[in-house]
Design brief:
three-stranded antiparallel β-sheet, Aspartate Aminotransferase, domain 2, disordered N terminus, 15 helices, Aspartate Aminotransferase, domain 1
Length: 484
């Protein structure tokens, strides 16, 4: 222990206050080599207080934020399901936490075995046997899959194929990933049912098309009924079909993308497989591909040789897209989720996710306009009625009013094909009581909106931060640190 870093107490200049300072702080700061202007002229004033006061302070701070452990999160197209505590406990076990990715393979047999089994399970669930756990998140998986597609085209001598077709309801990451991978994007329209317009798709197919990037179920919460025909048409045109697997929660255990013609897809383990989601933390976006494309996957794949496991580099590997080989703690959680559920449990998850979404859709369509008011999958899209809009109420007002009622707003203004969209996804983890509370809140807000109640424009009024100008906040952020 370095005694120079032992905290010492000294008197603050303010009456009744004491501060913590590191002994020999000047020497410690000087050793950093920081410019003088960045160094403190005096030590920070940190109050001495009892543990109870400290716990209450941080507990109050935590309660000022929304969290899925305290509030409902019906974020459409994000599958913000609850993460079981038992998975967190398993992932935090010292047996995993003490490992390092650069250890020899013979010291990582348990970890490699887990990764190999997860590869096998994801391949079985999707019907696509070539699996890599390498990508760090969903969009990273998209980029990886598109680079695999590009490598396949280049080996065939078809590098003139540089167009990816994307539905107009696609996730925003889809065109961004295509551009990063060196492709051009062409948009395919949706029809009146909210599905891919087959005639428009056919009109776009030519010898410049590398593939079609589809989300199924799509971002309107609808299953693409013509998906097998779509895949056949793209294959006949010489391309491949990539599926954005962000909405896999609705179909896992029920149907397999590989069986209806998908060539490659990514899975969001932080969505469908109940691992931590967002917040700047680690994600995971494995990709699954056909056997034909497996040789192009990035390094490294875990393979089994007899009773042992080792790393393997595919023969036509596209290289490495990140450090190491996946966010291992996330993979442990996903493995635990799959093994605890099994095939029967995964199917039940999808069935309950669809049931919950349709329950809310039917309850909400009494007061809100549901543009595609028919059986949906895991989510549905609603929007304000004409009466509400005539009263000057917009989707943002509704979102802010929900915050006031202790509910995190659904995804709003997306997908872009529905104006003033409110995208609701309850997931399978919410109880009927929670769903009813949300439906009642939406009913109350609908009545306020039809009446033009000014409370909608003022909301939220019971939160630490009230209504802000989102557009200005993006264009002209004022970032500052304030201490009392």
């Amino acid at each position: 222990m370095n005694l120079d870093l032992v905290p010492l107490l000294f008197e603050d200049s303010r009456p009744g206050r004491r501060c913590v300072r590191h002994a020999n702080a000047d020497k410690t700061q000087a050793s950093h080599g920081l410019p003088a202007r960045e160094l403190r002229e005096a030590p920070p004033a940190l109050p001495e207080m009892g543990e109870l006061d400290l716990i209450r302070h941080f507990t109050r701070l935590s309660q000022k934020n929304f969290a899925i452990s305290t509030q409902f999160y019906p974020l459409g197209s994000c599958t913000m399901k609850y993460n079981p505590v038992v998975h967190e406990k398993i992932a935090a076990d010292a047996a995993w936490m003490g490992l390092h990715p650069m250890q020899p393979a013979d010291e990582l047999q348990g970890a490699l075995g887990l990764m190999h089994q997860l590869q096998e399970d994801l391949g079985e669930a999707t019907g696509l046997p070539g699996v890599t756990l390498h990508p760090a998140a969903g969009a990273h998986g998209e980029l990886t899959g598109l680079m695999v597609l590009r490598a396949w085209l280049d080996e065939k001598g078809e590098n003139h194929r540089r167009t990816i077709l994307i539905p107009d309801s696609a996730h925003g990451t889809n065109p961004a990933s295509c551009t990063l991978a060196g492709f051009h994007v062409s948009t395919v329209k949706s029809n009146d049912l909210g599905l891919t317009d087959m005639e428009d798709l056919k009109a776009h197919l030519n010898d410049s098309v590398a593939g079609f990037m589809v989300t199924n179920p799509n971002t309107l919460g609808l299953f693409e009924e013509n998906i097998q025909e779509i895949c056949d048409l793209v294959h006949q045109a010489g391309g491949k079909v990539y599926m954005d697997g962000a909405n896999f929660n609705a179909i896992m255990g029920i149907t397999r993308p590989g069986d209806f013609g998908i060539d490659m897809m990514h899975l969001n383990l932080h969505k469908s497989f109940s691992t931590p989601h967002g917040g700047g933390g680690p994600g995971s976006g494995p990709i699954c591909v056909t056997q034909e494309l497996a040789k192009y996957l990035p390094e490294a794949i875990v393979v089994k040789n007899g009773e042992s496991y080792s790393w393997s580099r595919p023969s036509h590997c596209i290289g490495r897209l990140r450090a190491w080989n996946g966010n291992f703690g996330v993979l442990v959680r996903a493995y635990a989720y799959v093994k605890r559920l099994g095939a029967v449990g995964m199917k039940r998850v999808a069935e309950n996710a669809v049931l919950n979404a349709n329950y809310l859709r039917v309850r909400c369509n009494k007061h809100w306009r549901v543009p595609f008011d028919r059986t949906c999958m895991h989510e549905f899209v609603a929007r304000p009625t004409k009466v509400m809009k005539d009263a000057g109420v917009h989707t943002m007002d509704i979102a802010k009013r929900l915050i006031e009622k202790g509910i995190h707003p659904p995804t709003v203004y997306f997908p872009l094909v529905v104006s003033e969209a409110i995208m609701v996804e309850p997931t399978e983890t919410e109880s009927k009581e929670t769903l009813d509370a949300f439906a009642e809140a939406m009913t109350e807000i609908a009545k306020e909106a039809c009446a033009g109640d000014p409370c909608l424009h003022a909301a939220p009024t019971n939160t630490p931060v009230g209504r802000v100008d989102e557009a200005r906040a993006v264009k002209d952020p004022q970032l500052c640190f304030r201490c009392s």
